[in-house]
Design brief:
The chain is an all-alpha fold. The protein contains 15 helices and 2 strands. 71% of the residues lie in helices and 1% in strands.
């Protein structure tokens, strides 16, 4: 009688326990430490902010991650397939970072600190950037506005595509650096937005936006931020969550990290560059961001990438696993 998958995994782990540190390795430890930091911050800041995170969301993300990690263990020790194992190991890391980062944004924005919108607008003007003028120009080009909306909405699909593409070409070290940079950028972003809360340029210039109804621009995130600041919102569910962070722009962070990651996949290099330049172009209007939000997002992305490369240098994480199935 053949052993069950769970028993086979247990036997393989016992047989090859010396290989576990190599299988996990420095990249995985750095990434999981970042996930743990995000989880710890959520656990600390939610009670302090008087917020409750949906238990259903916690259970679903924990269950999904456990299933994916079990699959990664199966394809590492029982039926070795490095690409599938790496994919199933990377997926829960990214799932948890996205979930925890989104949750942390709510506790970060549940503050009574003064809003920085007027300051950011003044900084934009000092740089020669005129948000209402850009809005009016976009309003005269509705076809372009539609393209920009599609580019802006591509962030979540691109997250999945980056992971699959890097696994496909076996760029495992780059995959680790991408995920680690994403998590580090989330931590940096929440630290900045917690002390510089703002609503968004679209709300700051809401009268100008109302004059362009055909663009269909709305920012539900403002409602959430105002409810957090007033204490009206105390229960947070990721099912109804919005991207509520204005400064720094996380769409900008993502676009830069996507461009770097796609550059390691020859057949996605130029399409990825074009798509993410379009996403950057869409961010001020479709995302309702100030120009300084994008500049800060660029700085965060480059800093996170710099740290990720130093924590996971080239060559680290590229090792090929050669774990054998039990028996």
């Amino acid at each position: 009688m053949s052993p069950t998958p769970a028993a086979a995994i247990a036997d393989a782990v016992r047989a090859d326990w010396r290989d576990i540190p190599r299988a996990l390795g420095r990249p995985a430890l750095a990434i999981w430490a970042t996930v743990a930091t995000l989880a710890l911050l959520v656990a600390i800041t939610f009670p302090l902010a008087g917020l409750t995170l949906s238990p259903r969301d916690i259970a679903l993300n924990a269950a999904l991650s456990a299933v994916l990690l079990a699959g990664a263990a199966f394809y590492t020790w029982v039926r070795p397939d490095e690409r599938i194992a790496r994919l199933l190991h990377a997926a829960p890391q990214f799932v948890l970072m996205t979930f925890l980062g989104g949750a942390l944004s709510y506790s970060a924005m549940a503050t009574t600190l003064p809003l920085w919108d007027a300051t950011f607008d003044a900084m934009d003007k000092a740089l020669g950037f005129d948000w209402p003028a850009l809005l009016a120009w976009t309003g005269r080009h509705p076809d372009l506005a539609l393209i920009l909306k599609l580019a802006y909405a591509s962030m979540l699909p691109q997250m999945a595509l980056v992971i699959v593409a890097l696994v496909t070409v076996r760029a495992f070290g780059e995959l680790d650096r991408f995920i680690l940079a994403f998590g580090l950028a989330a931590l940096m972003t929440m630290a900045v937005c917690a002390v510089t809360p703002s609503l968004c340029a679209g709300y700051f210039y809401r009268d100008a936006v109302a004059a362009q109804p055909h663009l269909g621009l709305t920012w539900n995130s403002v409602t959430h931020v105002l409810a957090l600041r007033s204490g009206e919102m105390t229960f947070v569910s990721m099912a109804t969550a919005e991207g509520i962070v204005t400064m720094p722009s996380f769409h900008t962070v993502s676009a830069i990290l996507f461009i770097i990651a796609f550059w390691h996949v020859v057949w996605l290099r130029w399409p990825g560059l074009v798509l993410n330049v379009a996403m950057l172009a869409a961010t001020p209007i479709v995302g309702g961001h100030y120009l300084v939000d994008l500049i800060a997002g660029l700085a965060v992305a480059l800093a996170a990438r710099w740290l990720a490369v130093r924590m996971i240098p080239n060559g680290v994480g590229e090792v090929r696993l050669e774990l054998r199935p039990a028996g």
